Description:
Layout (H helix, E strand, L loop, with lengths): L1 H16 L8 H17 L7 H25 L14 H38 L2
Amino acid sequence: MQRWVNCSIATILALLMLVHIGDPQGWLWMGIYGSGVALALAICKTHLHLWTLRILAVAATVTLFVFAFGFFSRAPHLGPEWYHTDGNARPLALLAATFCMLAVVSAYTCRMKGAQDEETYSDSRTSP
């Protein structure tokens, strides 16, 4: 089930990437969305070492904060009904990407907890 959720998040992030095509910094944002897609797909791999999970979790957290920073840096320039008006697709995409990355970071946290429990359990079984 979690694999399907992360694949869906990767698809959503790939679609949200298209919103930034006309943006002056579009290539930068497309790269950041691409990293979010890669991180969402990487968690679908079944066998990942604990240290690999930790590094990818930090990268997912940084990506989450970049999306949040992108939205909140544009937020002061938005009007009171900004989500109803035309031309505000980019802030909406950044906000949606922020929430998508929350789920990805949560998936990495759960996987790290499971991997840590497995290491602790296997260590206790092998020690005399």
